[in-house]
Amino acid sequence: YSIHLTNINTSNHSIQAFTEILLTPKIEGLEQVTLELKDLVVDSVFKADGLLDFEQSGDTLYINMEQAANIGDTLDFAVYYHGFPFHEAWGGFHFSSNYSFNLGVGFVSIPHNLGKTWFPCIDDFTDRATYDVFITVDNNLKGISGGTLVNVADEGNGKLTWHWAYEHPLPTYLVSVMTGDYVLYEDDFFGMEDTIPITIYTRPTEAGKVEGSFSKLKEILQFFEDKFGPYPFERVGYTGTAIGAMEHASNISYPNSSINGNSSNEWLYTHELSHMWFGNKVTCSSAGDMWLNEGWATFCEKYYKEVIYSHEIFDDEMRTLNKDVLQKAHVTDGDYWALNNIPQLYTYGSTAYDKGGSVANTLRGYLGDSIFFEAITAYLDEFAYQSVSSEDMRDFLTSYTTIDMSSFFDAWVFTPGTPHFAIDSTKVTENSGNYAVDIFLKQKYKGADYLADDNILEIAFVDEQFNFITDTVHFSGRTGHSVKSMPFYPVLVMMDPFEKIGDATTDNFQYFTQPLEYSFPETYFKIMIDQLSDSALVRATHNWVAPDSLKVRVDSLRLSPYRHWKIEGIFPDGMQAKGSFFYDMGNSLDNDLILSENDSVVILYREGAWDDWHEISQTRQGAWLIGYIIVDELLPGEYTLAVWNRQWVYNPEIIEDEVVKIYPNPSKGNLTFEFAERGNYDVFLYNTNGVLLENFIVKGKKKNWKWDGNQAFKGMVLVKIIENNQLISAQKLIFN
């Protein structure tokens, strides 16, 4: 394509142009060339020796050849056109004051490609071409595109024509044009293969802010070359636009507001720069595979911070990304989607960007850094200036690494949702001074009825002095078993301690040396340590899958269908702590658990998979639909939200038989419980709103047991007594 924008009228938002097209047929007997051109009117189509017949219908331009062309032939013609270019809220061809610019894709338009808004073309992700762009503007303005600036020709009539040439073949959406009163900032980057010019065009008002906003650009370029190979285009270019950002090849559209003199949007220009490798050098072959562009750019915008800043910053941002995927992506995108088959309504949604970024990082953890970066660089070189599918990536990585990537791609790319991995239990056996550790693993899956195979997971073994040894386990399906030999007795065994995979968990651990309160990031859990005599290690894991079900059913008690916690660590003797667990009927958290104000939310606890869920001493802070549940004595184990139906709690079928007698009724606050048999009983007191007032355990050493109320309850109170997870008594009492 040689695109000639001969007149760009920023006053009435129109253009006049012609595009010369040189093409070769890929089929025999081509009699008609079909191109796309949106909202612009074709005046004529010329070839070297005259006019060609054409038809324009909607966004399609049909050009009739005088004689059929065959494979290997060359067709050369020019399309002259004019009109008012299309744009949507984001993509298309825009005018802003005396500036004009294009954004090569639209978020609303389907298909999304919008090269067709300013030149006739084959407008998809797979058809590639080279380009020359000629932009005629007033002498006091600049015309900017990608590639290399060939020359600026003085037309002699107060006009200049800026000629830009692209060296590498690109899809149409990656070609750019910007015009206006721009100031040029220039620099050079000394790359691994060549010196790369840096051009940053801004409005005069942003000219003095460039260095502050792009202060680490060269470091970030060095990062990309170190990880993914040489910069793949003629120059590094950014041009300020009223809206953006858009990864046009070698000439990124970048929002004027982000050129603000500081590094607050450094992540954004890094994201767009990463597209020079992921999206521009190698392009997704369809909109459904957009994660190959945007997911990898999202990974890059996070990962560069580990190299340039710190591992902790990267961990924090990736943890937040994973949490957002697990909590929100299926909500904002309407459902759980496989990465390779995202409906076009959600092409530029959370699944492609955020889940795609999480899966890219998970692939890194699966392969390990040395294999990962080498293999991805080789992938980019193998498919340079081509379009690829997820299957292409899978097959190449399998071939290059000799690791069969089928199971990984089946689970993480080709299936909606996310795998969930956990340690079900461990057993330690001493053996000749070493310790054999049996690890029993289990898998669930969030968002699909699926179980992943060939899983590779890192496990940490921790001794009393907090020394870590890590190893990997491999398993497939619902459960797994692995045995590892350790030189010490592991007091703690943790799954994926350093958060290398983006499974359906949000977790992190922390060391404590003194009493304090600490909120574990992105887990909806806070620890409140009241007493600590020695150092402690505590890890909180928020599991984004349903907990195991009750071993013994309890009427009108529902467990969360969506999430639960595991609290583990090294708790020294004498440590006293409370735990605060957040619940919320909204915000895509507990809306499937708390259905109405008749549901009274509680926390249930179990020590491990061998135990059953049961209530523990707790208080609730907040309303029925949002708040915190404070567990009075935090112990290692698992915790889940559950609800009692308040109507049942308050209006159950009252059980008043000879099993338990409670008196006096009415009461001033003191009660006597007379049990028919010795046993272990859980006693719960609820008010008329279904709020748990008191919970205590009666040991079965005697039949009669007295309770001296610690607080003055008033009015009607429901007393429930549970033995072996079965309700054996429910009685209404009056406190006065």
Overall body shape: elongated
By DSSP (H or I, 4+ residues per run), the number of helices equals 10
> Would you count the extended β strands for me?
46
Assembly state of the chains shown: single chain
Radius of gyration: 33 Å
The biggest beta sheet, please?
A: 8 strands, mixed
What portion of residues is helical? 10-25%
Q: Give the helix/strand class.
A: alpha+beta
Detail the poorly predicted runs. Answer: none
Provide keyphrases for this structure.
736 residues; alpha+beta; 7-stranded antiparallel β-sheet; 10 helices; 46 strands; 16% helix
In short:
The chain has 736 residues and is α+β, with helices and mostly antiparallel strands. Helices cover 16% and strands 41% of the residues. The chain has an eight-stranded mixed β-sheet with strand order 5-4-8-2-1-11-14-13, with no helix packed on it. Strands 28, 31, 32, 33, 35, 36 and 39 form a seven-stranded antiparallel β-sheet that branches.
